[in-house]
Amino acid sequence: MTATYTFDVFTSLDGFGGASSEWGGYSGKQGPELLARRLALYQADQRMVFGANTYRTFVELLAAGDQDLLDPWVTRMRHLPATVVSSTLKEPLEWPDATVAHGDAVDVVARLKEESAVPLRSHGSLSMNRALMAAGLVDYLQVTIFPVVTGQTGDDPILRGAADFDLELIETRTLDGRTQELTYRPTVHSPVDQALALG
Question: Stretch 181-193: mean pLDDT, rounded?
Answer without folding.
Answer: 87
